[in-house]
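Entry type: protein chain
Record version: 2
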Amino acid sequence: MTASSLVSRLALGASAALLTVAPLPAQQRPPARQLGAVVATSEPFAALSAVRQLPGGRVLVNDPAGRRVLLLDSALKQLKVVADSTPSTATAYGPRPGGLLAYRGDSTLFVDPASLSMLVIDPAGTIARVMAAPRPNDVGFLVGGPLGNAGFDARGRLVYRTLTRNFGRGVPGQNGPLPVQPDSTPLVRFDLASRAMDTAAFIRIPPMRMNIVRGDGGQVRSMTSVINPMSVVDDWAVLPDGSLAILRGREYRLDVLGADGKLAVGEKVAFDWQRLTDDDKTRIVDSSRKAMEALRASGGGMVLNGGGPAAGGDGGAGRMVVTMRMDGAAGGQPAVVTGGAPLSGSSLPPLTFVEPSELPDYRPAFSGGAMRADAEGRVWVRTIPTKPLTGGPEYDVLDRAGKLVERVAIPRGTTILGFGPGVVYLGVRDASGTRLVRARVR
């Protein structure tokens, strides 16, 4: 979809979608409406993964493929280069995709995984100072994407997801399965001053079974996972007031851990739960295998330590890459992990999927990385479609109490990158690259 066609579609205003009726009349879901009008469109970028709106409508954008952080004006025209890929400068971006996250007041952090540091960017787009990142193994979890977007709580502690998995080395010199990994992982709070860390909560993640393949010399050639294309997972986001919102996938409800430490458990969100028959499960596994094989054959993929697909980006050569479905139906489940080259070609190991009987009995409401908080403290949840996607992604919008207040549809081929007061930022790719679009929420 081109940026001009996106503008035309968004400018149509609100329109009604089909009413999805839940089993009980009291649980009817509202029809999905369209976003409001487009108010600005940028020049093309190589890719976009995050934005941060500043006072006056100025915007910081992260272009991981171009290895740049740029400051745009209120019309989304470039004002200055904040960080770039020139290695001889003090504003070097680094060789790996970084992340943007809101810091104190109107300042912003740029996380550089390569140097294990965080650049503090002031509201004028100037790098004011450099801070050490949290534990080295955790830096990759701060760049955003399907693993969640880090943020600061009301006490100024950095909240992010980490990992309890330890795949180990397996049996030296032998191929075969690695230990089965836990199906939950912690959300932690890190004090940048004292370097103290504690666990805020645990979330459900896709259980993973890994197999290792070694070369003749015993070196690891690849690691493959047994793929479950439809796992039931939790998701999370930090709200503007520093509260931690956790979306529970099994019940589809929103729990909020407030600044006072009290946990508010929400009611179950009304949803059109679709029971999966044995034939449905078989079709899901077969179609997922075909889609992922086609994606892998085309060289598509994701940077493992980059946290997720940037709008318009690709995995890139020479990086550790994860191939997975791009529409989120795989629930963030890696398909193949390998190093040193893009994921394409006949030399890759075959994809291995779970048996259809291991899929859940009901289609999950959402997959990993589906949740974002807007500037008003509401939670947007990209739901998994119950039918083949003919339009664009649809979002359930929940208030702080977990109540479904509305549903919003965005044009197909677009990605929500962030929010400002009353506006949403979208990435859309056309023949010239990826453009940033600002549209009104209503």
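Comment: Residues 166 and 401 are 36 Å apart (CA to CA).
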